[in-house]
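[audit] Reproducing an earlier prediction to check determinism. Same input, same settings, fresh worker. If the tokens differ from the archived copy the diff job will pick it up downstream; this log only records the rerun itself.
[audit] input (404 residues):
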Amino acid sequence: MPYDLLAGVRVIEASMYAFAPSAGAVLADWGADVIKVVPPHVRDPMNGNVIAGLPDRDVDVAFMWEITNRGKRCIGIDQRTPGGQEVIAKLVSEADVFITNLLPSARRRFRVDVDDLQAIRPDLIYARASGHGPAGPEADAGGFDHTDFWARTGMGHAASMVADEFVPQPGPALGDLASGAFLAGGIAAALYRRERTGQGAVVDVSLLSSGMWMFSPGVVASELYDVDTIPRTRHHQQPNPFVAAYQTRDGRLVYLAGIQTEKHFEKFCAAVGRPELLSDPRFATAAARAANAPACIAFLDEIFAERDLAEWVELLSALNTPWSLVQTAREAANDPQARANNFVTTVRTDSTSYPLVPSPAQFDGQPPELSPAPAHGEHTEQVLLEHGYSWDDILRLKTEGAVL
């Protein structure tokens, strides 16, 4: 069943692309009534744009639009017009939260900046999704996650240290979706304070701030140790042989996450039929394995190459050694553990069904129930009627081009 944690909370979201909309999607997952504002005759880039590299195939689902806008209602408003600005002001007067990724100049031009809207609703939670943050020389500039989140924060550099070329961000909206979840959490905290004190808030999250947070070990260590980043090495240079990926006989990669104790190492050696490792002075202790890491890695390369993946799954599952198969996205989508916990769920409409990933938090042992994203401007008339507009008012606004 749908979550009701934010039941009664109304959110107005005036944004495009993926960062700010993903914050609205998380709030919708949690039960908020999220009303997405779109320009009447301009389709969101997420609503139908082909993702580079995917097959030229019509799957009948604009999946990026669904990921970032599920569970919302949608109203078409031309914020450039006086009538559109009047409608936004009316919506905000009855709202709890306003989310936007509009640049400061556009917010001022459309009369939806902080002062504009908090004058209408003093206890409003005003949430800004930006590229670089609200201060500094680039505060007025836009940004994207592959530049501000991935490249600028040091993550892209660190990932590329073990490659022969720059490693691009692994997929679309990686930083957007993380940043949106952070923004949703900030909004929830601000709502909690307002519940206790009646005070509104301005909540800021940027792609740069969330990337800095996620890569903070590298950022902090670089300052403390006077290095460019935490060193990263290729497979044969790993400092800990048991924190590395090994290739099986049938070409799959198994990633080990460490041997906790000497007893675990003894069990591993027995399970793989190599007790001689225990008596080899190069590998007999954790300190010795670290001192002779390249030789130990070479030995483990040979051991893993002796068995197919199915044999390794059975063998490692019987040990206390943390490990994982290096999976493809398709395998992750069908991972039995992920499916058992509803980390991938199915959304159904009258004409089709498709997979979606819920936002990470689950409450009371139940997964969120997701509903489809709206069509462009699908709920314009419904939302206007709820906010006191008559059919004559709606016809006037449509004639003026203020609404869809």
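[audit] rerun output stored. Observation attached for the diff report: The chain has two domains: 10-216+335-400, 243-320.
[audit] end
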